[in-house]
């Protein structure tokens, strides 16, 4: 398991990946490397300590779980999202960003 700051970096990387994917989908770009992204999800599950995340002041573990679930769902759908799904992901990311902006990552 990774230390707290490394957990936060992994979560940030996952957030950026989801954001980049949804932008590519919105722009009509083909997303081809879904299998490679599955490896990223597996690594996230292996390395990120959810108990440590739950104990991180100001970090809502439900949003981290939601971010992971959103990414997993996008991969399951091979990034073939319809407009409603794109709107849902975009809305979730806005909420997630608002929560993270106010988080105080204190050990």
Features:
107 residues, mainly alpha, 5 helices, 72% helix
Shape: globular
Separation of the first and last Cα atoms: 16 Å
- Rounded to the nearest angstrom, the radius of gyration is 14 Å
Beta fraction: under 5%
> Helical percent range?
over 70%
Number of domains: 1
What sequence of helices (H) and strands (E) makes up the elements?
A: HHHHH
State mean pLDDT (0 to 100 scale).
Answer: 85
Q: How many E strands? A: 0
Number of helical segments with 4 or more residues? 5
**Largest pleated sheet:** none
Structural class: mainly alpha
Q: Which consecutive residue ranges, at least 5 long each, have pLDDT under 50? A: none
Structure characterization notes:
The protein is mostly helical and 107 residues long. The chain has one domain. Helices cover 72% and strands 0% of the residues. It has five helices and no strands. Helix 2 packs antiparallel against helix 4 (61-76). The longest helix is centred in the first third of the chain and has 23 residues, at 4-26. The chain is globular and about 40 Å long. 18% of the residues are buried. The mean pLDDT is 85.
